[in-house]
Every structure is written in C-alpha cells, then in structure tokens.
From TrEMBL:
Keyword Ligase: yes
EC number(s) from the headed UniProt entry: 6.3.1.2
Protein name, entry field: Glutamine synthetase
Reactions catalysed according to its record: L-glutamate + NH4(+) + ATP = L-glutamine + ADP + phosphate + H(+)
Chief localisation class: cytoplasm
Cofactor(s) required, per the database record: Mg(2+)
Quaternary context: Homooctamer and homotetramer.
Superkingdom of this protein's organism: Bacteria
Residues of the GS beta-grasp domain: 4-86
GO molecular function, one term: glutamine synthetase activity
Subcellular location: Cytoplasm
Top enzyme class: ligase
SMART domains to which the protein is assigned, alphabetical: Gln-synt_C (SM01230)
C-alpha cells in the first residue's frame, strides 16, 4: 500500500467569478487511485460563500482525476460541490447539469496576465512600457523579461505530466500577457482541464511571488490588450456533414441567442468587446471568414471543406466559466442540429 496525497479541488461560491480552492487528504491505495475509489469528502462552506455558519457542511464529489506532477504520490482530484445529502448539486455547482456530448470538441485559448506588485509583470512602477507590437510571440529579455518564460514552461510540463491535453503556448499582445491552449472532447472533459490548468498555473506562481490576473480588461479603457478565452468548437455533424445551409442556420441561431451567450461569456466583457483590438462589439453578432474582428471567426479550412470543420467563438473572456461556455455553445448548436434531423 502507498499513501497518496489527494488534493481535492473545487470552485467556491464567490460571484461573479468563482475561485479555485483545494485541500489535501492522505489515503492508502494499492496503486494510483481511480475515480471510483475516491471517497466523497466535506468542507466548511461558510468559509467559501457556500453555506451559512449554522449549517456549514458541503460535500465534495470527485469527478475527474489526474496525477499531480508537483508532488510525490500526488493526485489532483477535480470535484463538484454537493449539498449535505451528497446527491443534490449545490447552487454554485455549474458543472453538474451542463450539456455534454463526447462528439462535441472544444479548444479553449486561455489568455491571462502575470502580475507583480499590483501591475503587469515587466511594467515600470510609473507609466507604461514601450507600446504593444513586439510582445506578441516575442523573444528576448526586453520583450518577455526573465521569469515569465520559466513559469510558462514549468506550467506546460506540469500540464503534460498531469495528462492535460495542453496544445500550446504563446506570449500575447500586452507585456506580461500570455496564452495557453487546451483541447478536450466533451464539455466536461475540456472544461475540467481548463480549471486544472488554471489551478496548476496559480500554484506554480506562488513560489515566484507572482499573481495571475484573469480579468478581461485589467488595464481598463486603454490601448492595452484585453484577455479572452476563445472557444473553438465542433460537433460530429459540423465535422462530418456541415454544409452552407446548416452553417447559415447556425449563425442565425447564434445571433438569436446572443444574450444567452454574453450572459455566460465572463464578467465585464463590455469593457473588452468594444469593436476595437480584434474584438466585435458585445451587443452585435457577426461572423466572417478569417475575420478576427467578428464574434465568430470562420477558418478558411471550414469554407474550403464545404462548410465542415470547427468554428471559433471569440467572445468568451479569460474569467469565463468554461463549463457554462461550452454548455451554451452546445445548446445553440444542438437547437439547429435537432431541427435539421427533424426535417430530414
Ligand atoms: P488562434 O490564436 O489563431 O485563434 P490557436 O492555435 O491559439 O489559434 O487555437 C486554435 C484552437 O482551435 C486550439 O485550441 C485547437 O484545439 C482548436 N481546434 C482545432 N481543431 C478543432 C476542432 N476540430 N474542434 C474544436 N476545436 C478545435
Ligand atoms: Mn491563440
Ligand atoms: Mn490569443
Ligand atoms: Mn483565437
């Protein structure tokens, strides 16, 4: 038997953006534990905005498990928060009832800022660094500084070791801003991995004395880039059948459901989706081939393959909840696909 360090990770009840929480319990197993072997656990919900003090127990239900690359015999256990009965999802549990489908694939591009002493990493104490231009995909000390790359490399390695489907990294448009991409099949699988990747990034940064600023427009109404979490998506139908008529119906449905999408695409998105800096205004739906100023970008390959493949919704932001985002995308796409199959 081996003593494993199980890190139970969950989302708290803070609004509008939940924080990641985690605590450790030690348990003995013959070998690396499977999901089914992991017990329910509890925590004090009155300390996480998830319960009143008088009746404060909340239940943690393991839903996904990964090896913890930073700990000897470590296990990362993604959990849903349940009511004391252990079966009713807690109101803060945005994962339990989302739409899911293994045939729906999601690629999230998570952007974020490194922050040190309350400002983006590499910003001078007063004023601003040289304007944007050389930072995106940049190389060299004056563009990316000395620590950022060390952190993103360590994060990449830890994600890969944990079995996260990490697909890539790049320095972003603003100084101190970076991006990583994660791909998953199914809403829950893709979104769980984003949350674990966020967790790993935060945890790695502790020892560097650096914070992650997830806000979508941390530098406010300036020319400095905001942070998105573009959601690239495809369903089996989109990849294998597609077609122009389907595509046009799909875009009409996205336009009709505009508000439902914006409602879950992350807080303060009106600050970011202004129509400037490769964004479309939040209150007007648009799409275009290779158009980075549209709400939805249609890759050239999609059109060239007879309107088949994947699409990129550029509106979700860096603070968005990937469970809610994936679910809403799937809901809109399903409305169209159900209509198509009913008509066929
Ligand atoms: P860009 O910065 O040009 O928008 P990235 O390379 O950062 O592009 O991101 C592209 C994303 O598209 C990746 O996250 C990738 O996983 C995703 N993707 C690629 N093919 C598919 C597909 N068939 N279905 C869903 N997502 C996909
Ligand atoms: Mn990208
Ligand atoms: Mn980007
Ligand atoms: Mn993108």
């Amino acid at each position: 038997m081996t003593k494993y360090k199980l890190e139970y990770i969950w989302l708290d009840g803070y609004k509008p953006v939940a924080n990641l929480r985690g605590k450790t319990q030690i348990k003995e197993f013959d070998s690396f534990p499977s999901l089914e072997e992991l017990p329910l656990w509890g925590f004090d919900g009155s300390s996480t905005e998830q319960a009143e003090g008088s009746s404060s127990d909340c239940v943690l239900k393991p839903v996904a498990v990964y090896p913890d690359p930073a700990r000897k015999n470590g296990v990362l256990v993604m959990c849903e928060v349940m009511m004391p009965d252990g079966v009713t999802p807690h109101p803060s549990n945005t994962r339990a009832e989302i739409m899911d489908d293994e045939g729906a694939w999601f690629g999230f591009e998570q952007e974020y800022f490194f922050y040190e002493d309350g400002r983006p990493l590499g910003f001078p104490e007063q004023g601003y660094p040289a304007p944007q231009g050389p930072y995106y995909t940049g190389v060299g000390y004056k563009n990316v500084g000395s620590i950022a790359r060390e952190i993103v490399e360590e994060h990449l390695d830890q994600c890969l070791e944990a079995g996260i489907n990490h697909e890539g990294i790049n320095a972003e448009v603003a100084k101190g801003q970076w991006e990583f991409q994660i791909f998953g099949k199914g809403s829950k699988k893709a979104a769980d991995q984003i949350w674990i990747a966020r967790y790993l990034l935060l945890r790695i940064c502790e020892k560097y004395g650096i914070d992650i600023e997830w806000h979508c427009k941390p530098l406010g109404d300036t020319d400095w880039n905001g942070s998105g979490m573009h959601c690239n998506f495809s369903t089996k139908y989109m990849r294998e059948v597609g077609g122009k008529a389907y595509f046009e119906k799909l875009m009409a449905q996205f336009e009709k459901n505009l508000q439902d999408h914006i409602d879950v695409y992350g807080p303060d998105n009106h600050m970011r989706l202004t129509g400037k800096h490769e964004t479309a205004p939040w209150n007007k739906f648009s799409y275009g081939v290779a158009d980075r100023g549209a709400s939805i970008r249609v890759p050239h390959s999609f059109v060239n393959n007879g309107y088949k493949g994947y699409l990129e919704d550029r509106r979700p932001n860096s603070q968005g909840d990937p469970y809610a985002i994936a679910s809403q995308v799937l809901k809109t796409v399903s409305e169209v696909e159900n209509e198509m199959s009913a008509a066929a």
